[in-house]
What we know:
By secondary structure, the chain is an alpha/beta fold. Helices cover 37% and strands 29% of the residues. It has two domains: 3-244, Rossmann fold; 249-358, Alpha-Beta Plaits (2-Layer Sandwich), CATH 3.30.70. It is built from 14 helices and 14 strands. A hairpin with a 2-residue loop joins strand 9 and strand 10 (221-227). Helix 4 packs across helix 5, helix 5 (146-157) runs parallel beside helix 6 (176-193) and helix 12 crosses helix 13 (324-336). It is elongated and about 80 Å long. The chain binds adenosine-5'-triphosphate (ATP). Adenosine-5'-triphosphate (ATP) binds at residues 14, 21, 23, 41, 43-49, 169. InterPro entries: AAA+_ATPase, ABC_transporter-like_ATP-bd, ABC_transporter-like_CS, ACT-like_dom_sf, MetN_ABC, MetN_ABC_transporter-like, NIL_domain, P-loop_NTPase.
Amino acid sequence: MSAVIKLEHIDVTFKSKTRTVQAVHDVSLSVEKGEVYGIVGYSGAGKSTLVRVINLLQRPTKGQVEVNQQDLLALKPKALRQARKKIGMIFQHFNLMNARTIADNVDYPLKSSKLTKAQRRAKVAELLDLVGLSDKKNAYPAQLSGGQKQRVAIARALANDPEILISDEATSALDPKTTLSILELLRSLNQRLGLTVVLITHEMQAVKEICQKVAVMENGQIIERGDLLHVFSQPQKQLTKDFINTATQIEQALGKVLQQPAIKHLRSNERLVQLSYIGDSTDQPIITELYKRYLVTANILFGNVEILQNTPVGNLIVTLSGTEKNLNAATSYLRQAQVNVREIKVGRDVIPLTKKEHA
Ligand SMILES: Nc1ncnc2c1ncn2[C@@H]1O[C@H](COP(=O)(O)OP(=O)(O)OP(=O)(O)O)[C@@H](O)[C@H]1O
């Protein structure tokens, strides 16, 4: 594999009379050909500014920009225009021309190509077919749903056969079901055309659906990055954890669990823990082993297994009961078995064991 996008030590500083904003600070990013790479972060983190550097819609204040092994900053305007054609872009608000038909919108970027009118017509038909909108070619944008408009925008972005597609919050204005269908479309374009996709979003859910790699941005910097599975199973930074929790809904489940009276009054021989694991270990063998080896019983309060990149990722909230020594041994065993154990402190309401229970 080779890097199709290589950004090195990128700084973008916006200066006005009254203030200076460092939107991107010392960011290096490498995206391999054929990857779907997610960049996640809250509003203002610098995501849009960073991806606009990829096609030099935004010139960096500092740093190197290499796309398809070409140093974009060294290109003359004409060569840069050519290079930009290989980088398609879609946006949250579609940016369609309302006075033109769907076919004309998709045809627009082909106007400067060498294709004949007939070839262009065929190309537009092919693109609309690719995004499942052949029957809408004579409609106007106002007659389409949000999801359909985004499909038109995708067809238009693909008109010049780009190798890279940048998606800047392209699903943010769509409902969850339509979001999924657009993400599915991006995934299939990635697989069918070998298109490299850079997806920026504030929704980890979207990243989880289709990305192989993810970078988390905060204050103009990438604070964590890696393979999706790795970042999901071992997030290091609190912000990454927060994003993941919104996508797995584990915190929501935990909130409900903590409301249960039995949990509010946890006994001193009980621990409330979150167990997370990736791969084939299912909850049952883990739980059976805990009892067989350490006489530790586990009561599952919440369980969720998701498939990320064809790999199961499990999250359980359980109470473990046993003696202090055995609970410690069981926890070590779990960690050795590559299960991430997070103990959840329940508060002050721990009921001490009676003498009899100790015995
Ligand atoms: N042209 C500009 N002039 C001045 N400041 C800018 C400009 N563009 C962006 N900024 C500032 O740079 C910072 C990063 O903005 P950017 O749009 O890249 O963030 P983002 O993560 O994409 O957020 P959003 O999703 O809200 O666009 C913000 O503080 C923003 O106000």
